[in-house]
Write a structure and sequence with these properties.
By secondary structure, the chain is an all-alpha fold. It has eight helices and no strands. The longest helix has 30 residues. It starts with a helix and ends with a helix.
Length: 213
């Protein structure tokens, strides 16, 4: 737990994270208002105004996770100092994931509440909060493997906003296996999101444990 607290303090010192969180929440607020205004005019922008904005603002949580994980590899090689202090890499990766989840949870909850409560769908709030938190962890796992923020962001946004929609359009059955389906239909995509996140975290832990800093 001491390692997790140290990792949390480290994340709190990154200026990019509060900025990303604020921009993401603000974008979600604007989108939520747009969806609600369109619905009140009888011109709905989608089938589910409670979850649809999250389909876009999940990009902010992917970036949040990438920045949190990639920062140590880019800012003067801080990861080497971390490994000197905590040489056991697998427990270190677990502590990093725990710290990031703790930091993400309130941001995810605030974002989910903005969308779901305004649309009168409060029952979706816990699922949306969990989804956004898992999405952040998946982003961090990919960044831990890639070790560079820009390639990781390009890879993730390409998967979520290009490959995913194309696969769903090509085959409706593929939706159950994509990591972002839960943003559109939590009851259908929750298992896929959990599986993708756990797989990415496992791959990141294995990669970090095996390679040089």
């Amino acid at each position: 737990m001491n390692t997790a607290r140290a990792e949390l303090r480290k994340l709190l010192t990154l200026p990019s994270l509060p900025l990303t969180a604020l921009l993401t929440w603000t974008a979600n607020l604007v989108l939520t208002y747009a969806y609600r205004a369109a619905g009140s005019r009888g011109e709905p922008l989608g089938d589910d105004a409670a979850l649809a904005p999250l389909g876009y603002t999940q990009a902010g949580f992917l970036v949040f996770g990438v920045l949190a994980a990639a920062s140590e590899h880019q800012e003067g090689g801080q990861i080497r100092t971390t490994l000197l202090a905590v040489p056991r890499r697998l427990p270190l990766q677990a502590a990093k994931a725990l710290a990031l989840a703790a930091l993400t949870l309130p941001v995810a909850a605030a974002t989910a509440i903005t969308s779901t409560l305004s649309a009168g769908e409060a029952t979706w709030t816990p699922a949306a909060t969990a989804y956004l938190t898992l999405t952040t962890l998946l982003g961090a796992a990919v960044a831990s493997v890639v070790r560079r923020a820009v390639p990781a962001v390009i890879l993730l946004l390409g998967l979520y906003f290009i490959a995913g929609p194309l696969l769903r359009a090509w085959s409706a059955t593929s939706a159950a296996y994509l990591p972002d389906t839960a943003a559109l239909d939590p009851s259908r995509g929750a298992a896929a999101t959990i599986a993708w996140t756990l797989t990415a975290l496992t791959l990141a832990a294995f990669t970090v444990d095996r390679r040089d800093a």
